[in-house]
Every structure is written in C-alpha cells, then in structure tokens.
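Handout, tutorial session.
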Amino acid sequence: MATRAVAPLSAAPAADPQPLCDNLCWLLSRASYTLTTELTAALEVLGISPRAHAVLAAAATGEHSQTQLARMVGLDKTTMVVTLDELEAAGLAERRPSPSDRRARVIAVTAAGAAKLREAEKIGDRIREDVLSVLPARDRKVFLGALSQLVGSRLAEPVQCAQPVRRRAPRA
C-alpha cells in the first residue's frame, strides 16, 4: 500500500480564509470520504468493499438477522440485500434459518469470510494507525472516544427531513 503526502487544511497561508474549518458536518464528511476512498483502494486487493467489510465484521459478532445487521451497520434494507448477495456469491457469508424464528434468517460468516475479515482488519488497522499518526499519541484515544460518544448518542440516528440525504456507499 502506497502512502501519500496530503496537504493539511491549515496549509494555506494564514491570510487565506478557510470558511469550512469550523463546519463540523463538512469536516466529518470530508474525513469520511477521504478515509473511505483510501480504505476502498486498499481493500481492492481482497476483492471486498468497506461496506462488505463492515457487514462481515458485524455478522462475526454473533447471530444477527439481516435487519439487525442493517441497523448495526447503518444500511438501508436494499443495500443490505445487495451486500449480502455479494458476500454469499463470494462464499464469505451465508443466510441460515434462525434457531428461534423460522421466518427469519441469521447471517453467518463462513470460514473463508472469517479469513477475509482477518486480512481486512489488518489493512484497516494499518490505515487507522497511519491516519491517527498525525495526532499526538495522547490525543488519539481522546479523539476516538469523543467521536464514538457522538456517534453513539447525539449523532446515533438521523432526523427526519423533507428531502432525505442519500447515503452513498462505496462500491466493491
């Protein structure tokens, strides 16, 4: 995986206005897009997308239905079906009858899926460490903790709006 130099947002001369430097939505969106793009490129060698990786990682935590996984990962039903179809076709996951509800299916990670997940986790760990390396070591845990707290509370669910924002998931 090649590393690349990226100019920080503060690289512009102090006299140049930076109108978005305090816009939380823009900062999070920019960080997400850039990081997701890098992760997408890195996972291409494994033949999976960050979305497929997220579904595999969530499925590996226990017996979850398709609906539960969609909620856990933050995907709509259609995107979850497409993702699971891709994972099944690749032999990485399978839908099995639920032992507690014969109408439901649980998503199981296959042995090949578990191996692929371990490889993807190594890639993700490497990228996360590289990204966080720009922060002082003492700030990394604080940053991740604060971001986790936001996502787990105030930013856990989107509000309803007249013109819903479309979430664009990366393609495999």
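The second record follows below. Compare its token runs with those of the first.
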Amino acid sequence: MRLTLLAALGMSTISCATMPGASVAGSDSVQLVGLDHYVRVRSIAPSMNGQTAQLYVRERIEGRALLHGSSGVVLFVHGAGTPAEVAFDVPYSDYSWMAYLAHGGFDVFSMDTTGYGRSTRPTVMNDPCNLTRAQQRAFVPSLLTAPCAPGFATAATTIASDWNDIGAVVDYVRALRHVDRVSLVAWSLGGPRAGGYAAQHPERVQRMVLLAPGYLRTAADGPPAQLPERAAMNTQSGAEFTANWDRQVGCPDQYERGASAMIWTKMLESDPVGATWGSGVRRAPETANWGWNAAMVGKSQTPTLIVAGVHDKQVAPTRVRELYADLGAHEKVFVDLACSSHNAMWETNHTILFRASLEWLTEGSVGGTKNGMLRLGYDKEQKNAE
C-alpha cells in the first residue's frame, strides 16, 4: 500500500508503505509496519542555502503500537558516511537496531540529513571534480579524463545545517505523534549532530544514546568568519569500506562477512549515482564542524548513555571517555563494549548494545546503573577464548 498526502505540518510530503506481510490487526499486530516520510526544510547548507531540501525519514513500529500507542518516540541520527537506513535498519538476521527498539515498544524513526541516502543531494555532489585530487584519481579514465579543479570549494554542509535538518524532523515527528519530547540515538558524527541539537533544545529531547560519538573537547564555539577551502564531499569504495573495518578487528569472529556484504549492497542502493562511479562508491558531503565542545556538553542535562567499542580506531575510546567526564548530566552511563569496533551495531555483540539502549530508553538505567562506567560483553569474550 502506498499513498501520498500533504501533512498538517508545513507542506511535508509523506509516503507510507506497509512492509510486506505486515498487518495491524489480529495475531499480526506484533509485526513491524514501515512508513516512509519526507520532511521539507529550508536549507542553510552552504551548497544549497535558501533552497528547499526534502529529508527522508524512515519509521518502524509494531502494528499494535500504531493502534494503541507506543512507549515513546526514538529518532536515529547517522554519522559521517553511512545513511541512517543502512546504519540502523540493515536487513540481515537480527541486525536492525530500529526493529529491536520497535519490538521493545517504541515508535522508531531514522533520518538522513541533507546529502545522504534518499534525502536531497546538493547538485555539487554530482560533480566528481568536487572531490579531493586523490579521490578523483580513482575515477580516471572511467569518469574523468584527468583530475580537475573544483567548482565548489568548501564543505557542502555544516553542523549548523545538520542541526537545522534535525530540528525540522524533530518538530515534524513531535507533531505527527503528539509528543513533547523524543529520544535521540546517534552514531559517530551523529554525536555532535544529535548532542549539539539536544544541548540547544533540551525541552524537546527525552534521553540520548550515543555510539562512538565524535567528540572534540577543544572544538571552536562557533563557525569561522569564512569557511576554509576543502572538498565538498567524499567517496568510499567497497574495498575501502572492508579495509577500514578489518583494521578494527581485535577478537575472533568479531563480525560476519555476510553482514558486511549486505551492508555494502544496501550502501550502493542508497546512492544510485555513486553506484555508477567506477566500481561503485557511496558519496557523502563533507561537514564543517564546531560547537559540541567541553563548554556545550558541560551544560547539557539530557540523560545520556555513551558507548565505545574497545577496538574502535575511528573515534578513540579515550575521546568518548572524555565526553563522559565533561557531560553535565547527572544521569549518564559509559559502556565499554567488548569485541567491538566503530561498527558495533553490525557486529556479533550487537545484541548487547541493543539491549543496553532499550533498557536506557525505557528505564533510564543499564543494569540498574544510572550514573557510572560499565564493561559489557567481556564475560562472553572470556568464554569464547576458553
């Protein structure tokens, strides 16, 4: 079933699709219903300032919760390279974090900020000349005859444009589901995105879960007077994706090759243009970052669960511990997750992560702890070693 209508909130277009086999009646009421939404926002991204962007929002909810109400609303915010529907709703075994929380009683949404997935891509992202010279060389001679000068020479998006996108989606979801607050779950660069938004709008955020958040204590308080010259976007190939993951493997059977293959397939599906470049790449905008620093997080009171994979080589666990130390919230828990990398939600310990997030969002604690540092999964790691 598909339908399109104009929302009461602005002129957002919603496209709704019930997942195959799903129902909202009888014994099928525990099955998930999937709905696709598109939220319009006036962009403040440098690459399309003043234009209207459409932000893709995916929803997962059990049929019975759709009929009778959920335990609350959760919004997932992605990181620097992977769109949300791939990061959090990968259709492999029980690896969908969105589905796990939906089966836990929540009405679960994810969003793609400008430049990702099915959200509006700035036109500058269609020109491979807007990559770095090093990345351009990968497309010579298949796409380019030679490396070329960029037509757009700053980051395509900024942390402020991401906050603007998140604000539009949060307000849309709050109006759609008649709630005052939503909880935010974020990964990697999603940390500054979601955490910065929550720090500025605490009245709209219930709780947060941050996996491998890209925190920088010394980040500038505000934007520079002029954005520096840099590539507008970046790409990642399948080989680069696998190599980046493999360098973070620190224990046997940390991840399944089948999961990796499915994730990369969905990554290319999320970017039909990038899939035609060379052997196929995913594209992502470069983002100018500032604001989510010691001063900002020190004032934040949103109850927050922070998770770091012990083998993460993209966001060092020491940086994540610094966030825990600096965070002003009284209710905060840091989880040191065993046998896990930056991609913890796609690895064999994903259920430990999912369970902790559900407990935090439901109870405001993990294992009864509301404030403190925990080590999870190490008993399982020890048993496997024996």
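Points raised in discussion: The radius of gyration is 20 Å.
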